[in-house]
């Protein structure tokens, strides 16, 4: 923050000097050409121009907090600059600047006023250009952070799925199925292929549609159901009206995987995972049948990355509820509006 303030201060100083030189230089050239001294000293005029430019730029660039003024609104910024112009004019009048001393002083005063207005307009233009460049830079940084968080989350899913334990279980499932049902084994391999294809294709994408995420999750859950036959039940109830909304890729799979990883899945104690829409959000809920500690080791990376991706996308966090017997995670469904992602607040 301090580094940014220092950089902004240098930009304001250099811009004010440039404006002062731009306004004063023609006077110096004309005075030199006519071999006369202007009625109002060039040095004093240049210093005055510099101070006005510096003040105007400082107020606009620093987004000074003033009651009733919202720096984010251009109409408020314009009103602030008009008030600043009036204030400077009153101050100059009180200081008798420029001092009428010659017959053509009215023309000089008129020229002075026009120059002052043009100077304020130039400062506002420079400040708006700086604000635009700053916002674009912040947007690029935000997008880079989002892509990084998304890549980290995707990598975590890939790492979890292609680790030896995952492959060992999947290959064992395929091996057992080949002897019993070759067609079922082929379907398992096809689902496994779809899982990897989706993860690889979604890498780098900030969001996908809920419809695409549900299709991917269907392939993933079929693999889980083959491995935990009779011990795992996944109930998905999503109205068609919500399938066009957006969410980070692999987010639903992360929540289902998280539930399976941390809870007992057995015929005697089946795990039921429910996926539904509530209050306009995607909710994943399961009863808590926590595994023994030696089997429930976790770094919390999956939920953390999912939380970070939402913060970068729309400055909104996921909702986690951990009651005595129920664990629930609610994901905001997003839509693209006015050039950015915003949560859907309507419960259709």
Describe the structure.
It contains nine helices and nine strands. The protein is an alpha+beta fold. It folds into two domains: 2-140, no CATH class; 163-343, 2-Layer Sandwich (Heat Shock Protein 90), CATH 3.30.565.10. Helix 7 (210-227) packs parallel to helix 8 (251-262). It is elongated. The model has no long low-confidence stretch (mean pLDDT 79). Residues 154-224 form the Signal transduction histidine kinase internal region domain. Keywords: Kinase, Membrane, Transferase, Transmembrane, Transmembrane helix. GO terms for molecular function: kinase activity. The chain crosses the membrane at residues 12-33, 39-57, 78-97, 109-130.
CATH class of the largest domain: Alpha Beta
Shape: elongated
Total helices: the number is 9
Describe the main β-sheet briefly: 5 strands, mixed
Number of strands: 9
| Beta-strand residue percentage | 5-15%
CATH topology of the largest domain: Heat Shock Protein 90
Helix-and-strand structural type:
alpha+beta
CATH superfamily of the largest domain: Histidine kinase-like ATPase, C-terminal domain
**Number of structural domains:** 2
Keywords: Kinase, Membrane, Transferase, Transmembrane, Transmembrane helix
Transmembrane segments: 12-33, 39-57, 78-97, 109-130
InterPro entries: Bact_2-comp_sensor_kinase (IPR050640), Sig_transdc_His_kin_internal (IPR010559)
Domain Signal transduction histidine kinase internal region: 154-224
